[in-house]
User: Fold these one by one.
Assistant:
Number 1:
Amino acid sequence: MARQFLGNRLATGALIVLAAIVIACAAAPVLTSSGPTDTSLGESLQGPSARHLLGTDQLGRDLLTRVLFGGRSTLLHALIVSLVAVGVAVPLGIVAGYVGGWADRVIATVTDIVMSLPAMIVMLVVMTAFSEHLPVAMAALGLILAPPIVRNVRGAALAVRNELFIDAAKVAGLSKGRIVFRHVFPRVLGPILVQAALATALGLQFAVGLSFLGFGAQPPSPDWGSMISEGSQVLNSSPWPLLAGGIALGLVSLTLVLVGDGLRDMAVESWTGSPSRRRRRPARPPVMVSQAPRSQDGPETEKPAPDEALLVVRGLSVAFTTGGTERKVVSDLNLTIAPGEIVGIVGESGCGKSSVSRAVSRLLASGGEIVGGSIRFADKDVASLKGEDLYEYRRHSVSYVAQDPMTALDPSLRVGVLLRRIVQAGEGLSRRAADARVLELLAQVQLPDPAAVAKRYPHELSGGMAQRVGIARAIATKPRLLIADEPTTALDVTVQAEILGLLRSLQQQLGMAVLLVSHDWGVVAQICDRVVVMYGGEVVERGRLEKVAREPAHPYTAALLACRPSSVVDDDLPLPTILGSVLSPGEWPTGCRFAARCTHRTESCDAAPIPVSAVASAHDVRCIHPLRDGDSTEVTADV
Ligand SMILES: Nc1ncnc2c1ncn2[C@@H]1O[C@H](COP(=O)(O)OP(=O)(O)OP(=O)(O)O)[C@@H](O)[C@H]1O
C-alpha cells in the first residue's frame, strides 16, 4: 500500500509539505526565537527579510512565528471536525450499506434531516451558545458534515456487499462482524480517506472563517483566521500580514486534497490490482421461507432414500421481484443429492440453474425469494435458518465455488491471509497452526509452491490458480456439499479439464457431495454421477448421466447434446444451435415451456402443465412425447 502511495509523486510531495507544516506548528516553541505576541514597534509592517522570513505585522510581530503558533489551534480545530465527521459517518455508512433494511431507512431519514438544515445558521447558533468553546463548535460542524460522508460510505459498502467474495466469505461461515471488519472496511477505506481529507479541508475553512468573524483566538493570541482578519485591515500598507495567513491556509487545503486523492488511488489499486478486475453484482438480501404443496415435478425414480440423502429439495420455487412485479424463475423443482454424490444441473443461460444453487446456499440476490417448497440439508430446514444456525450451516455444511475466480477472492488480501482468516474463524487455531493449515490446503488443490502463492494477491495469480485458491477456500471448512456454479466457464479449455479433475479427486478424498452447475454438457459429462436438465425454470429431465447422455428422452436434452462441439462430425459445418431462444420467466406458457422450439410439438403440449414421469428406471422426463431409441436427436438443432 505504502509503495503505491509513494508512486504518486504529487501526493507524496503534498504529504511531505503537509507533514512539515504540521510538525513545524507543533514544534513552534522550539523552532522560533521569539513568542507570537512579542512586539517590536520599530519593525512594523516590514516585508520578508533574513530576520523575518515572512515579514512583520503592524505591531512588528514576526509573521512566521505567528503563523506557526496560530496553526496549532487552527489545525487542531480542523482535525476535530474531521474526526467527528468521519467517526460518526463511517459506522453509520457501513451499517446502512452493508446491513441495509430498516437500519438503512432510519439512517437515511436522519441524514436527510441533518442535510436539510442550513449549516451556516446552525453554526452561528452553536457559536452563540458556545462562544468560548470553539472545539465544541467544531465538533458540531463535524456532525453537520457527516451526512454526505455517510452516503458516500453507504454507497461503497453497498457495492462491496454485492461482490462475489462477500458471498464466498458468507458461505465460509464468517459472521457479519468479521465480514465487515475484514472485507468491507478495507474496501471502503478509499472513500473514507478521501472524505476525511476533504472534511479536514472544510473544517479548516470553517475554523478560519469563524475566527475571521471574531469567534476564534482573541488578541493578542494568533490563529490563521484572526491573522487574515488583521491583515485585511492593513492591506493598503502591506500585503504580508494577509498573505502569511492566506498562504498557510491555501497550502494546507491544497495538500489535504492532493493527499486525499493519493490515498484513494492507493486504496483502489491495492484492492483491484487493475481497474479491469472490478465488477459489480446486483444486491442480495437474505431469503424468506414459504411453502408450496402442489408439485408437477413428479417423484424421482432414481434417488437416494430421503433418510440417506444429504440434500432434499422439494417443490422449490424461487421468484425475483423487480419494479414491484414478482416473477418466478424456478418452479416446483425436486432435487436429491446423496452424500458423496456429484450431481450436475445443466441448461442454457437463464433456465434458473444458479437460482437453484443460490437458494440451496442461501445466497439469493436482492429481490430473490424462495416462494415455495422446502430445502432440507441433513436434518436442517435450510430456508428457515437464521443467525447462528445460518452461519453454522454455511460454515460446516455447504461451500460455494463461483464462476469468476478473480471477483470471488477479496483483492485487498494476500491469499495466505484470506485463507488463514477462514481457517481461524471456525477452528480457533493459533496463527502458526492456521498458516500450516493454509499451506496444506494450497498443496491439496495442487498449487505448486504453496508458500509463494500464499504471499501473492489475487491479481498476481492466473485464472486457473485463482480458481484453485477459490476451491481451497471452499474445502477449508470441510463442507459436506460443495456447490460449484460454472466453475470453469472463465477458464481456458486445458485449465478447465484440470479444475474438473481436481474437483473429482477432492470429492473422492474428502467424501463430500458436489452440485455442479453448468451450461456445458462437456463439463457435466466429465465428472457427474447424475444430471438434472433444466429448462424455463423447471426440471425437464434427470437421471444417471450415462443414461441421459446416451438416450435423452426430452427433445431439449437431445438438442443440447447435439449442440456439443464434440458431436459435430464435419469440421467445416458451423456449430449447431437450438432454434429460438429461452423464454423469459414472465413469458412461460401454461403447457410445455419448450414447445415453441420443439419440432415434436402437438396441440396437447400446450393444453396443460406437463408433469414429470418416469421413462425408465433411473430416468425421468417432463414430456408427453418422449424420444425413443432411433428418434432423431437433432430435430431442433439448426446448422
Ligand atoms: N438478481 C436478479 N434480479 C432479477 N432477475 C434475476 C436475478 N438473477 C437472476 N434473475 C433471473 O432469473 C432467471 C434465472 O437466472 P439464473 O441465473 O438462475 O439462470 P442460469 O440458468 O443460472 O443462467 P446463467 O447461466 O446465465 O447464470 C433469469 O431470467 C434471470 O434474468
Number 2:
Amino acid sequence: MEKTMTFTDRLFKNVQPIWEKNHNHPFVQELGKGTLDKDKFIHYMKQDYVYLIDYSKLFSIAVTKAPNLETMQKFTQVLHDTLHFEMELHRQFAAEFGITDEELEATKPTPVNVAYTSYMLTAAHNGSLAEVVACLLPCAWDYWEIGKLLRKQYGDILASNPYRKWVETYDSETFGEGAKALIQLMDELAEGKPERELAVLEKHFQMTSKYEYLFWDMNYYKQDWPI
Ligand SMILES: Cc1ncc(C[n+]2csc(CCO)c2C)c(N)n1
C-alpha cells in the first residue's frame, strides 16, 4: 500500500519552487564553491548573528507553549545547539576576520532582517505551538538541505573552500537531527487539524521560506538602511 502523504511531505512538495530559488541564489552557490566575496560573507555573519538571537527566542516561546516535558526538552536542545554551537561558528569566523563578539552582537539588523524576525515573533507570540514550528522550520530544514546540496555539488573542492566550516556545520549530524526532530514535531502537531488551520501553517512555512531568499539576497547585495 502506498504511504499516505504527511503534512511535511505536502509542505516540502509545495515549497520546491521557492527552495530551488534559494539553492540557486549566487550567495549560496558561491559559498559552496568558495568564491564568495569576503565582504559579503562578513555582512552575512554579522546579520545572521543578530538574526539568531531573535530566532532563538522562538524556541523559548515554544518552550512556554509546549504541552509536555518531552517537547520542552526538544526545544531546549535546539535552543542550546543554536546559542552554543551554531553561533559559535559565527564567533569563530568573525574572529578570523578580526571582528569581536561585542561587535557582532552590536550589529544593527537591516530592513529585511527586521521584517523576517518580526514576522516570526509576531506569529509566535500570537499563535499556537504549531504556528511557531511552521515559522521556524524552513530555517532549520532548508539550511540542512543546502548543507547536503553544497557537499554534493562541491564536496570534491571543499578542502580548499575558505567557508568549508560553514558547509560542514549545516551538513552535520547535529543539524540533521535537529531538523528531523522539528519535521516530526510539525507532523505531530498538524495531526487532526482542519484544513483551515493547516493552510495558516503552510502560509507561515512559505512566507519564512521566501524571507530566507530575501536574506540571501540582502547579504549578497549588502543591503542596509539608507542612512
Ligand atoms: C537566516 C538564517 N536562516 C536559517 C539559519 C539556520 N538555522 C538557524 S537556527 C538553526 C538550528 C535550528 O535547528 C538553523 C539550522 C540561519 N543561521 N540563518
